[in-house]
Specification:
six-stranded mixed sheet, alpha/beta
Length: 192
């Protein structure tokens, strides 16, 4: 099984700003979300834990109780939004009506297929591990990862919503890779 954990809330994620490579910290709420995600993950035997090198992911891993085992994986860094870094979709659409990150990309940033290629490299690494794996990373990157896990185009990650501090479970149905549980935030509501 592969467990995906999106980092906890940051000021920019709370304000719907595209947060790619800017290394913003968790908010107090984000730190609490990370602790609650840790309760959701407690007792899991993990053969490998990988985290994005950005502090919002590494701090989430640490607060969730995974930090002592976590290895930094540069391919888990968030989408490089280029000129749209730190801007909201509403702001971008003032200049480019109808703009969509999934289909229109970001000037001077990565394309969805470039993000997909990074996800594919992590998938190859994960497939070589004997045992369960946890990945702590970012919303758009993990959505792309989910799509690529299922063997569909990276752009299909646009159909996979993912809240801050959500936990997802990916696995197999016979030889087919599947999403077993997606965008689980029950631990944040106290019912998980």
């Amino acid at each position: 099984m592969v467990l995906l954990v999106r980092h906890g809330e940051t000021e920019w994620s709370r304000d719907a700003k595209h947060t790619g490579r800017t290394d913003v910290p968790l908010t107090d709420e984000g730190r609490e979300q990370a602790r609650l995600a840790g309760r959701r993950l407690a007792g899991r035997s993990l053969a490998l834990v990988l985290t994005s090198p950005l502090q919002r992911a590494t701090e989430t891993a640490r607060l969730a109780g995974l930090g002592d085992r976590a290895e930094l994986e540069p391919d888990l860094a968030e989408w490089d939004y280029g000129d749209y870094e730190g801007r909201t979709t509403v702001e971008i659409r003032e200049e480019r009506p109808g703009w969509d990150v999934w289909t229109d990309g970001c000037p001077n940033g990565e394309t969805v297929d470039e993000v997909g290629a990074r996800a594919d490299r992590v998938i190859e690494r994960v497939l070589g591990v004997d045992g369960d794996v946890a990945l702590v990373a970012h919303g758009h990157l993990l959505r792309v990862f989910g799509a690529r896990w299922m063997g569909v185009a990276a752009v299909r990650g646009g159909a996979l919503a993912l809240a801050t501090s959500a936990v997802c479970e990916l696995g197999w149905e016979r030889e087919r890779r599947v999403l077993e549980d997606w965008n689980d935030t029950s631990h944040l509501r106290g019912d998980g």
